[in-house]
């Protein structure tokens, strides 16, 4: 039986590739220009365009207070000014689309169209907020006030060379301390438990599940339970200590013990996850290595030191990077247990940013702090990955 | 026939008076409307709220109120600001007094003066301190209704007081003697019963001890007075009591819970707390002993306390129709019978003098006599400093006092450091 090769029919679109591309280029450029114009009107508040801004605000307020409906043109104008950056992003996406249409083979453009919805979602829900964060950090936006203006580097000056520095440095220090102990405890604990359960029989499956279970419980729920357990006067932990004649501290109200108190909850929640990841990696280490090492006279410690540990390095790197990033962003447990207190002893970075935004309503300062925090996290992650990739052996 | 004609005429007159009023009053509600009321009253008040809303609806059939529990005070404040930014506000919202000045100054809330005028509401009827809190310093207009007002009081164990002949101090100078007399020590020198526990987790619980002495968190010259000699003297005195085991400073996570538990367990003779928890104290004590309420010890003739609790605001971004209906509801729920009902179930105080007289008030006092002392001091309640950055300054001071009383930090150095931080905040805000 002979096979007949079917030649794909050229798509109609392919024929009009150039025309379409030109249309997208023009449309994209116009939208970008419109977005920039809206940005100048709404955000930069250029005096030359003050009347335009006022007009759209007035028609909107008439709708809000008196129910007089805005005309379609006014509605488009009002929202375009309010979300100028999204307009710019849409224009840029159209230009990208036009470039893909002409600069690439049609098949590649087709592939690009397939991922375009995802790109749009990423652009609007991830990169727009990020860009907006940078924008807000250069304004004096107080959440309670209607109007704000660009103030240049003022928020950064407050943070790095003003009264904000004390708070920023304290928050960074507390966050680093928290992260260090979380990474250390959860990785060391996870590794130890993985070694234990790796050797155990199937009867220990249930126990393994128990260790992992806390990961499924909502942080806020378990945090409330820990608040009670750690209560200085009536908590079960101090009661247990008192059985041995030890007077426990007032954990969450004492500057020295508040962070260890929160870390107890963290360790309880995360150690099971690290254990599971290590355990699955251990199962992947061929038994031959251990057999060969045993024949060569290596004892348990040597086998762990020279086989298990190096072969778990990629897993360790993965856990270090993911745990590091998640613990630097810790918030819920701190918010429920101490709200950053006592005396800012547990004032981690995200809690501080939250307080700036929703207690002081200074979104501008919160944005500047977030930008600095974002850059620090980015730098740390890049260093980790670079250092890790050089020192981790992925070969088995 | 004559009777029917007379009735018809009377009805006609009533309708024409109402129509004339509606025509004259630009804020009258003339069409059916549904409004949302955001509040932070927890589950235990659900049935009471439902009952009050139904009562209001019976009196104002054109207005349907949907109560929405948003969360505790802080959460409600966050949500209200988010709603303000998104132009999706309710008609009426509860609001912690700490936010009132900021909201009025920033245009989040509606100026109620034209409404008061249109409805001929006597503003002098509002309790002096509550009215001051509702009034914007910038324009002198009222922006909120006093709703669930509270202040700080001293709860004390009346049974022990009578048995041991302890009298509550009425002057600050009597505190030393009181502390010694009300404290019970174990044989090993540890404290078996504290004379008093100070609430150190909220500035309102301690600041008036200092303010009555003339200490100002923000002085007229734009610096803080928390490290001035008189402030150091008071701080050292409290520290001395703490070091002697007469009292302790409740601070940090669980501070409020632990303090209350000490009182219920009778390991504390007296506690400084909010009057709004009077029903909780009454229910928890459940007759195990008698308790009463005392005012703050005076310094000279000053025995002021701070206003806490909530007001009702009408967001500026609500539509005019929503505002009109919201005003009527807020006025109704904060006056007369409704406000006394709140006082009875919650311990929050009525916001109008007119509510504190008459048979309903007498019945309330008869039921819970402790209210009498509480209401008697109503004119000593002062609003907090209205400056937007005041709370940030006061919070720093609270942390410093916590460090001194709970962590043993040196008084003068810690207060001096704190003063430096507060001065930076003040400078920064200006």
Plain-language structure description:
The complex is a heterodimer of chains A (396) and B (430). Chain A is an all-alpha fold and 396 residues long. Chain A has two domains: 126 residues, no CATH class; 231 residues, MetI-like fold (Orthogonal Bundle). In chain A, 73% of the residues lie in helices and 0% in strands. Chain A contains 18 helices and no strands. The longest helix of chain A has 36 residues. The two termini of chain A are 47 Å apart. The mean pLDDT of chain A is 87. Chain B is α/β, with parallel strands linked by helices and 430 residues long. Chain B folds into two domains: 192 residues, D-Maltodextrin-Binding Protein, domain 2 (3-Layer(aba) Sandwich), CATH 3.40.190; 196 residues, Periplasmic binding protein-like II (D-Maltodextrin-Binding Protein, domain 2). Chain B contains 18 helices and 13 strands. In chain B, the strands form three sheets. In chain B, strands 5, 6, 7, 8, 9 and 10 form a six-stranded mixed sheet that branches. In chain B, helix 17 packs antiparallel against helix 18.
Write the layout of secondary structure elements.
The complex is a heterodimer of chains A (396) and B (430).
Chain A: H1 12-15, H2 17-42, H3 50-66, H4 72-82, H5 84-103, H6 106-137, H7 154-161, H8 164-199, H9 205-212, H10 219-229, H11 236-243, H12 258-283, H13 287-295, H14 300-311, H15 313-328, H16 332-337, H17 349-358, H18 363-391
Helix pairs in contact in A: 2-4, 2-5, 3-4, 5-6, 6-18, 7-8, 7-18, 8-12, 8-15, 9-12, 10-12, 15-18, 17-18
Chain B: H1 2-24, E1 33-39, H2 46-59, E2 63-69, H3 73-85, E3 92-96, H4 97-106, H5 113-118, H6 128-134, E4 144-150, E5 152-157, H7 158-164, H8 175-182, E6 184-185, E7 191-199, H9 207-211, H10 229-243, E8 247-250, H11 255-264, E9 268-274, H12 278-285, E10 291-294, E11 305-306, E12 308-313, H13 320-333, H14 336-346, H15 359-367, H16 370-376, E13 381-382, H17 390-407, H18 411-429
Parallel strand pairs in B: 1-2, 1-3, 7-8, 7-9, 11-13
Antiparallel strand pairs in B: 3-12, 4-12, 5-9, 5-10, 6-7
Helix pairs in contact in B: 17-18
């Amino acid at each position: 039986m002979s096979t007949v090769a079917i030649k794909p029919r050229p798509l109609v679109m392919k024929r009009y590739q150039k025309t379409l591309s030109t249309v997208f280029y023009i449309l994209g450029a116009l939208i970008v220009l419109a977005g920039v114009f809206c940005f100048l009107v709404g955000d930069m508040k250029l005096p030359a365009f003050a009347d335009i801004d006022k007009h759209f605000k007035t028609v909107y307020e008439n709708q809000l207070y008196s129910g007089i409906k805005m005309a379609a043109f006014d509605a488009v104008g009002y929202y375009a000014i309010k979300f100028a950056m999204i307009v710019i992003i849409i224009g840029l996406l159209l230009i990208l689309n036009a470039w893909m249409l002409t600069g690439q083979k049609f098949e590649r453009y087709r592939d690009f169209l397939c991922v375009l919805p995802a790109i749009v979602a990423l652009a609007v829900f991830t990169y727009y907020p990020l860009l907006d964060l940078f924008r807000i950090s250069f304004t004096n936006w107080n959440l309670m006030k209607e109007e704000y203006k660009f103030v240049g580097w003022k928020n950064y000056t407050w943070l790095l060379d003003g009264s904000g520095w004390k708070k920023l440095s304290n928050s960074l220090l507390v966050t680093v301390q928290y992260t260090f102990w979380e990474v250390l405890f959860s990785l060391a604990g996870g590794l130890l438990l993985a070694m234990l359960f790796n050797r155990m029989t199937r009867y220990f499956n249930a126990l393994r599940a128990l260790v992992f279970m806390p990961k499924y419980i909502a942080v806020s729920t378990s945090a409330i339970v820990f608040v009670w357990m750690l209560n200085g006067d009536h908590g079960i932990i101090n009661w247990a200590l008192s059985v041995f004649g030890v007077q426990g501290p007032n954990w969450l109200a004492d500057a020295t013990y508040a962070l260890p108190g929160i870390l107890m909850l963290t360790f309880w929640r995360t150690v099971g996850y690290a254990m599971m990841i290590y355990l699955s990696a251990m199962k992947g280490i061929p038994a031959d290595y251990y057999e060969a090492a045993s024949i060569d006279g290596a004892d348990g410690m040597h086998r762990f030191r020279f086989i298990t540990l190096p072969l778990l390095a990629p897993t360790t790197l993965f856990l270090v990077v993911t745990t590091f990033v998640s613990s630097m962003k810790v918030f819920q447990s701190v918010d429920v247990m101490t709200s950053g207190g006592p005396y800012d002893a547990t004032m981690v970075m995200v809690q501080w940013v939250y307080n700036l935004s929703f207690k002081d309503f200074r979104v501008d300062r919160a944005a500047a702090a977030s930008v600095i925090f974002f850059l620090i996290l980015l730098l740390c992650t890049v260093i980790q990955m670079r250092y890790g990739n050089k020192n981790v052996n992925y070969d088995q | 026939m004559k009777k029917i004609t007379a009735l018809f005429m009377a009805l006609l007159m009533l309708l024409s008076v109402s129509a004339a009023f509606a025509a004259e009053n630009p804020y009258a509600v003339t069409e059916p409307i549904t409004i949302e009321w955001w509040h932070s009253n927890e589950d235990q008040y659900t049935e009471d709220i439902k009952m009050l809303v139904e009562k209001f609806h019976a009196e104002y059939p054109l207005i349907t109120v949907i109560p929405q529990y948003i969360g505790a005070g802080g959460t409600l404040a966050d949500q209200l600001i988010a709603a303000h930014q998104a132009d999706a506000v309710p008609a009426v919202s509860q609001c912690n007094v700490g936010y009132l000045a900021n909201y009025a100054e920033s245009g989040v809330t509606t100026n109620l003066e034209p409404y008061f005028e249109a409805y001929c509401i006597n503003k002098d009827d509002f309790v002096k301190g509550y009215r001051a809190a509702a009034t914007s310093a910038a324009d002198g207009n009222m922006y909120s209704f006093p709703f669930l007002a509270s202040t700080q009081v001293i709860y004390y164990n009346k049974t022990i007081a009578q048995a041991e002949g302890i009298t509550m101090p009425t002057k600050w100078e009597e505190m030393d003697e009181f502390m010694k007399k009300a404290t019970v020590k174990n044989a090993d020198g540890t404290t078996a019963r504290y004379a008093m526990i100070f609430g150190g987790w909220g500035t309102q619980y301690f600041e008036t001890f200092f303010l009555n002495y003339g200490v100002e968190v923000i002085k007229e010259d734009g610096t803080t007075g928390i490290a001035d000699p008189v402030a150091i003297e008071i701080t050292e005195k409290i520290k001395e009591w703490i070091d002697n085991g007469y009292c302790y400073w409740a601070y940090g996570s669980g501070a409020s819970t632990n303090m209350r538990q000490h009182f219920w367990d009778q390991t504390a003779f007296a506690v400084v707390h909010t009057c709004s928890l009077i029903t909780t104290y009454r229910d928890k004590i459940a007759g195990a002993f008698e308790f009463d309420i005392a005012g703050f010890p005076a310094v000279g003739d000053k025995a002021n306390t701070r206003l806490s609790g909530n007001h009702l605001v009408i967001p500026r971004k609500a539509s005019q129709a929503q505002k009109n209906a919201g005003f009527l509801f807020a006025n109704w729920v904060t006056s007369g019978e409704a406000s006394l009902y709140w006082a009875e179930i919650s311990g929050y105080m009525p916001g109008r003098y007119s509510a504190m007289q008459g048979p309903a008030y007498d019945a309330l006092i008869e039921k819970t006599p402790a209210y009498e002392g509480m209401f008697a001091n109503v004119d000593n309640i002062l609003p907090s400093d209205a400056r937007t950055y005041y709370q940030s300054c006061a919070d720093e001071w609270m942390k410093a006092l916590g460090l001194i009383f709970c962590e043993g930090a040196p008084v003068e150095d810690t207060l001096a450091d704190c003063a430096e931080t507060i001065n930076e905040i003040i400078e920064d805000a200006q």
